Request: fold
Amino acid sequence: MKILVYGINYKRVPVEIREQVSLSETGRELILHIIREEGIAEEAMVLDTCNRTEFYLVGADRKTALEHLLVHIGEVNKAETLPDSSYFYSLTGRKAVRHLFRTGASLDSQVVGETEVLGQLKDAYRTALDCGTARFVLNKTLHKAFGASKRVQSETSLCEGAASISTSAVQMLSEDMGGLKGSKILVIGAGKTAETAVRVLAGKELSEGICANRSVNSAEEMLKNVRQSLRKDTVTSLRHSNNKKRVDEKCSKTTLPDEAAFPWAAAGLDALPESLSRVDGVITATGAEGSVLKGDEIIDVLRERDEMLHIVDVAVPRDVDPTLAKLNKVLLRDIDDLNVVINKSMEIRRSELPRAEAIVEQELEKFYDWIDSLRVVPTIKKLKAFANRQQQKEIERQCKMSADQDRRDLQRFSEGLIAKLLHRPFSYLNQISTERSESEVMAAMNVIHEMFGLDEDE
Reply:
């Protein structure tokens, strides 16, 4: 099974290089359509997160596929320069599938044990399905990866109390500022990362919180979701306290938590200069293709500040113009800086890594046992064995009271009949093994296995 992975990630490439090949949702769709239309691969999926951009290809030419992809990434991103192929890792076959399983199980994440990457992987899979580039091989492989991730989450403690990029960003901001109580914080973005950051910040006793986004409605909706989630958590906690009177009193307040406990408001990006003039810290996590905080637009505001402005930019591409770090009143962090915070929390989860890795290896072996069973020769052998078993069952049923000669005659007759019935299917299987793509052959083998229940008798 010719699965090929090309990737660039946080382990070996800094954010200023990664952001050059990072693709927006529209960009990922365009790349998948190009792969399909130009025949670069039989199947394809693009996984793009703040820490990685990876291309999963089936049936691609390893010698030429990456160069073709880089050309098209440059076109889609309208990039003047792109990193060359030496920045990318490439994995094939079992190594590629193992990498996918480990990625889905958060064993290859910057924050080991975080669960965000599984959602991102599922989103990437859905996009590939919508674009028609995920068929038999990727369908089966992705679902096995999801299953491996589920086992890691349920059978180990790797994900218990695990930090995420969002929580690590809040922690770094708190450490830089010497605490967040009573501070004013701006969160830029309204996606999942920003929402998680707001949720964590809601427990830090801020004096003011601002969520800025290109769509104010999206920011308002996100804040509403966080508020409702916090209310639900509060009610659940009260119920566990077995104080019915207190529960009834609190549950009657539909605005729980109240304004003092959740001092957040939504704003548009046009309000950023005014917001930056009064906040103490910023976490930015948008999906914008270019800088959201540009030096020429806000530099005057930042120069007039009396106090230090602390910024944690976890977006890729980066939201903040890196030249702003040169200002005396700005402390700018990017996603690569989070490793300091992340390493502190990793000690708790290191003991679970061997168990999680073992689960991935078990699921990988099971997956490849299944893959091997779908090859043409094993399938033909299984189909022939199935026919022989049915033949012997029928002979036994018909010849319970018959003479030995009758049994021999029926044996010869049934063997000849089975040979004639299976001749054409066997010829077809051998033919498609040389004329069709591997993905199509495997899909055909799978149909035969399911049709005759070839794996049920094992």
